[in-house]
């Protein structure tokens, strides 16, 4: 191992093997890159589980301006319009890049791209690869391209526990692999570690994804932004399986309806109905379940037996649960699905730490605002992977320094944090629950136990949510149901976060909650 580390020292290190990390590593070629992944290359990533596809304004009736307008509307006042335009304007580049790396998108008989419709989009602009298996098809192609790329060294089964800095800049990574702990010196790191859905019991994300990139960057001193905004997908398949299987929004785009146990179409009078923004649909379903009811997706008339060929993955998932969508109603419930906040970055992926780029779901570019527009995530991951690679190519690498001898600490344990987050940080929040969560999470996050790292991520969500005394996008407060007149974004470092949490924990209301 020592000889290998010596050989790899000083190379650009990409952490994560979802769409963002794979694209970044490939786009850096022929520059030597080390790609670290916790599991097998391409596995355990939310990208590989994505069903909906990629939002791409490539049709003759579409444009970047229309896509931007839909993105800003869904973002509920908190998108960075300039950043959003910069990312969306590179849709064609992202599409060409993915095709160059072997992705084959679905086309009609005449060869034109086949576009689908999802919630809050004003045009049919969702492109797929292998139907509802888009994420898996993309990750398969990119993984094959990475394995065939001579400039990329892949280390599988490696978990990054800490980022190491010197004089405020990147100096290396503290990792744990099959042969134990090791430090990898580098001055250029790309975090592409995915989301944080694993801190919830009901989630569509890989169970181990607790926001590692957010945690790593925060502990290294990077700034975090908009951490309160966790998107809950309205229609996860309601079964005992964990993580929950997803029933893509595209099924509703094909005309499937949402019904309660009384057969009522409870979203019929809501603007957009079943295709209203995700936060609206998730809260409506949540209200039905909270009153003791059940919610179902009815695809019988809209798709019937066609669902098996149009959405083969969803049909298989339903079949495993004993459900035939051509004849049966599909039970659904909201589940943690995507995080709009994360590490503050610019449109090149640069964080506030020199030598640290963060891309994909771990980053907060300003594209998504308070509520991600459906299928913008795979697009962002691709574009930002390309942009980060371009920025690194033009940046000078720093001088490799000797790294301190630091113990990695215990492996993360999510069980206690998952209980707290599922209880108090779900679809609708309130002050009493948030204060209770701060009181429970602060000692865990401040300690050095196995719950410490996931507790830090959950504490960040909680503190940001506690300070946002309004309902906006994916953040809903039952005690502050109205939005403020002026939308405001918020950033904090770890020091700010812990100080604020301590102040809130000493608040009289927190003690009585």
Tell me what you see in this structure.
The protein is α/β, with parallel strands linked by helices. 35% of the residues lie in helices and 16% in strands. The protein contains 18 helices and 19 strands. Strand 7 (159-166) and strand 8 (169-177) form a beta hairpin. The radius of gyration is 22 Å and the shape is globular. Residues 509-513 have low confidence and may be disordered.
The mean pLDDT is 94
With helices defined by DSSP (H or I, 4 residues minimum), what is the helix count? 18
CATH-defined superfamily of the largest domain: FAD/NAD(P)-binding domain
Estimated radius of gyration: 22 Å
* Helical percentage: 25-40%
Total tally of structural domains:
3
CATH architecture of the largest domain: 3-Layer(bba) Sandwich
What's the CATH C level of the largest domain?
Alpha Beta
Distance between the termini: 52 Å
Broad shape: globular
Task: Give the strand line-up of the largest sheet.
Answer: 6-2-1-10-17
Strands, count: 19
Q: What structural class do you assign from the helix and strand content?
A: alpha/beta
Q: Major β-sheet, in short? A: 5 strands, parallel
**Low-pLDDT sequence parts:** 509-513
Query: Could you please say which CATH topology of the largest domain applies here?
Result: FAD/NAD(P)-binding domain
Strand content: 15-25%
Can you give me a brief rundown of this structure?
This protein is of the alpha/beta class and 513 residues long. The chain has helices at 2-8, 19-27, 46-49, 64-74, 81-88, 91-100, 134-147, 212-220, 249-253, 278-290, 307-310, 312-320, 376-393, 415-424, 431-446, 452-467, 494-505, 508-512; strands at 12-15, 33-37, 54-55, 115-116, 126-127, 152-156, 159-166, 169-177, 180-185, 189-191, 224-225, 230-237, 257-260, 295-298, 330-339, 342-344, 356-358, 363-364, 491-492. The chain has three domains: 10-195 and 340-393, FAD/NAD(P)-binding domain (3-Layer(bba) Sandwich), CATH 3.50.50; 234-334, Alpha-Beta Complex (Flavocytochrome C3, Chain A, domain 1); 409-512, Methane Monooxygenase Hydroxylase, Chain G, domain 1, CATH 1.20.58.100.
């Amino acid at each position: 191992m020592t000889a290998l580390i010596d050989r790899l020292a000083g190379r650009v290190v990409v952490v994560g093997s979802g769409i963002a990390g794979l694209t970044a590593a490939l786009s850096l070629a022929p520059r030597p890159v080390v790609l670290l992944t916790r599991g097998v290359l391409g596995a355990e990533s939310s990208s590989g589980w994505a069903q909906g596809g990629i939002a791409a304004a490539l049709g003759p009736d579409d444009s970047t301006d229309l896509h931007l307008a839909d993105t800003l509307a869904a973002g509920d006042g908190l998108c960075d319009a300039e950043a959003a335009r910069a990312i969306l304007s590179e849709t064609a580049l992202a599409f060409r890049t993915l095709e160059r790396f072997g992705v084959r998108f679905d086309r009609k008989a005449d060869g034109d791209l086949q576009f689908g419709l999802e919630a809050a989009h004003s045009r049919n602009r969702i492109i797929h690869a292998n139907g509802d298996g888009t994420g898996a098809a993309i990750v398969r192609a990119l993984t094959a391209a990475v394995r065939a790329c001579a400039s990329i060294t892949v280390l599988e089964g490696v978990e990054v526990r800490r980022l190491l800095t010197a004089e405020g800049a990147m100096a290396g990574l503290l990792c744990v692999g099959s042969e134990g702990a090791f430090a990898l010196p580098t001055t250029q790191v790309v975090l592409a570690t995915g989301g944080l859905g694993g801190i919830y019991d009901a989630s569509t994300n890989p169970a181990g994804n607790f926001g590692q990139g957010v945690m790593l960057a925060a502990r290294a001193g990077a700034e975090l932004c908009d951490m309160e905004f966790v998107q809950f997908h309205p229609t996860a398949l309601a079964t005992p399986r964990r993580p929950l299987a997803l029933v893509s929004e595209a099924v509703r785009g094909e005309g499937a309806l949402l019904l309660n146990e009384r057969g009522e179409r409870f979203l019929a009078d809501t603007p957009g109905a079943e295709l209203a923004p995700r936060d609206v649909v998730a809260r409506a379903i949540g209200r039905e379940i909270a009153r003791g009811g059940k919610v179902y997706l009815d695809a019988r008339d809209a798709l019937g037996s066609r669902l098996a060929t149009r959405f083969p993955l969803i049909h298989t998932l339903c079949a495993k649960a004993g459900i035939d969508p051509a004849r049966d109603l599909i039970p659904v419930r909201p589940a943690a699905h995507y995080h709009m906040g994360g590490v503050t970055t610019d449109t090149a992926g640069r964080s506030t730490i020199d030598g640290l780029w963060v891309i994909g779901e771990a980053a907060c570019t300003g594209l998504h605002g308070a509520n991600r527009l459906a299928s913008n995530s795979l697009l962002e991951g691709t574009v930002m992977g390309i942009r980060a690679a371009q920025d690194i190519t033009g940046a000078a690498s720093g001088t490799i320094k000797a790294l301190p001898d630091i113990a990695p600490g215990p492996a993360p344990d999510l069980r206690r944090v998952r209980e707290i987050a599922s209880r108090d940080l779900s679809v609708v929040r309130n002050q009493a629950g948030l204060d209770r969560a701060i009181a429970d999470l602060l000692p865990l996050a401040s300690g050095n136990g196995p719950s410490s790292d996931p507790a830090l991520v959950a504490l960040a969500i909680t503190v940001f949510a506690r300070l946002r005394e309004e309902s906006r996008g994916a953040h809903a407060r039952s005690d502050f149901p109205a939005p403020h007149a002026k939308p405001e974004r918020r950033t904090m470092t770890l020091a700010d976060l812990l100080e604020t949490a301590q102040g809130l924990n000493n608040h009289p209301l927190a003690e009585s909650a």
